[in-house]
Amino acid sequence: MDLPEILNRLQISGETEAPSPSLLPGPPVATVLSQIQELLQAGKSSKTKEDILQDVMRLFETADSLWLFSSCCHSEGSDLGKVYVGFTGTLVQYAALPRCETDSGELCESWYSSVPGKACTVAGVLLRLVRRLGASNVVLPCGSTAAPVRSLVRKLLPPVFVFSAAHMQGLPWTDAQSELAARELLAASVQTAGCETLTELLCGKTSSDDEGILGPVLELLKPEMKKETWKLNQATKHVFSWTLIQVSRPWLCSYLDWVFPPSLLISDDYRTENKVLGVHCLHHIVLNVPAAALRQFNRAQVLYHALFNHLYTPEAHLIQAVLPCLLDLLSVLEKPPQKAGDPRKATRYDEVLRLVLTHMEMEHKIPLRRVYARNIPPFIDRLGIVIVRHLKRLERVIVGYLEVYDGPEEVARLYTLQALENTIQHAWPRMASRLDVLVKSLLRLIYDVCTDCSPTPQAVREDLLQRAAHCLILLHRCCDHELQAVLAGVHSTCPDARVLECIEKIQQDVRRQEANVEWSN
Question: How far is 301 from 321, CA to CA, in rounded Å?
Answer without folding.
Answer: 18
